Amino acid sequence: MGFGKSDRRGLSTLQGIRALVVEDGWAVAEALKLSLERLGMVVVGQVATAGEARRMAAEHRTDLAIVDVNLQGERGYELMDWLHDRGTKVIVISGYEHLPRSLEKFAAILHKPFTPTMLLTTLQRVMERCPTP
User: Fold this and answer.
1) Predicted structure pTM score
2) For the CA atoms of the chain, what is the radius of gyration?
3) Which of 70, 81, 88, 131 has a CA that sits 20 to 30 A from residue 23's CA?
């Protein structure tokens, strides 16, 4: 995932945002982490399970979490609800075409595969709509 010059406009809304990446696919997780860091975001953790994500979010202030629906065979719905209830904006990522309507309460849903531009647009929309204090 790389960003071109045209993708870098208006990134001030993302500078310093503290993000948690919850994805069990190492390549996808690493690409997300690197992409977020290139955008000026601070990745407080890159984890593969709901338990690790809860521990990381409890230890670090997290403005935003990008969470895959399927985490090592376990659905991440309870984790997403927990993060959302703590005031963390949740971007759901999934390779599934059909998802439960209950996920619509979260900040955004990104369907895999997504492009760097789609990620950037989603991040900007989420953070501009509900900026962090």
Assistant:
1) 0.89
2) 13
3) 131
Domain covering 28-114+121-127, topology: Rossmann fold (3.40.50)
Q: What's the 3-state SS for the chain?
A: CCCCHHHHCCHHHCCCCEEEEECCCHHHHHHHHHHHHHCCCEEEEEECCHHHHHHHHHHCCCCEEEEECEECCEECHHHHHHHHHCCCEEEEEECCCCCCHHHHHCCEEEECCCCHHHHHHHHHHHHHHCCCC
Angle at 30 between CA 119 and CA 118, to 5 degrees: 10
Interval 75-118: pLDDT, tens:
999 999 999 999 999 999 998 888 888 888 999 999 999 999 99
Pairing of strands 64-68, 42-47: unpaired
